[in-house]
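agent: user wants the structure for Xylose isomerase-like TIM barrel domain-containing protein from Asaia bogorensis NBRC 16594. delegating to structure tool.
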Amino acid sequence: MKIGFVSDSLGKLSFEAMLDQAVALGVSGVEVNTGGWSPAPHVDLMELRQSAEARRRFVRAFEQRDLEIIALNVNGNPLHPVDTRQGQDLEETIRLAGDLGIGTICTMSGLPEGQEGDRLPNWVVSSWPPEGQVAKEWQLRERLLPYWERILRMAPDHGITRIALELHGGQWAYNVPNFLRLREALDPMIGANLDPSHMFWMGADPIAAIDALGDAIFHVHAKDAGFNEARRGVTSNLENGPLGLPSARAWSYLTLGYGHDTLWWRQFCYRLRMVGYDGWLSIEHEDPLLDAVEGLERSVALLREVMPVALGGFNQMDI
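agent: tool returned. relaying tokens verbatim.
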């Protein structure tokens, strides 16, 4: 496994300063945000698409620092019924990845409206009232499958071999069963970007999810979450407190080790290895209270301590 981070983790730094900080942290690569919900502070997506010289400068900046471009990340809602820019960002990111020779895109499944004519996405997470299930099936049949079938026809033309969907709240494929249902209906080019922080706050077990997903795990975001029990006792995990104010929330995204200890992260990494995952652990710093550089330093140190590095193997001749 290798350690990197998501570029928006250092969104206040310039592109060059962000890469210099990656070198100082001793990571192996950076996952670059290109749009969607992100303002993409480190790239001008259209300039890179239109200018071969801009692309050469972009790649050279990584090569000069002996860093890898892990993937392009365009997390957002490409199926928003009104904000079509998010879907356009995904398509332009796929084209840019082809220009750069990058084979992996990180994005999300998308969440459409609940019926024709709605202007807002509709996230169905309850079995009752029954019209929610009607909306969920309509979303899959009328929006997700046609959209992703088109994207999967387009992606190979640009050298994309893997599209990693983040299992994230507010998306149709927010949990393992929904993700697997979508993948089975589409193509094994669709895989999972497993971020344990989202599973924590939604009440799932990331380690159980590893077993259920197996080789469908294409990418891993390393991010922690913790709970404010006094708040959670009266709001549940489903609440709308401000993200930047943990004291007013039931849960918050935290620096690695601040929500779950080193033993938990050791078991998480070991379980990933058990199902054959030997890819990136890409840190996504969204802790509202800890400085980004400090949070990345602490997260890198924890991952170095817990992650398997060299491939091992049991030899029966050793018995």
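agent: one observation worth passing along. The chain is about 40% helix and 15% strand.
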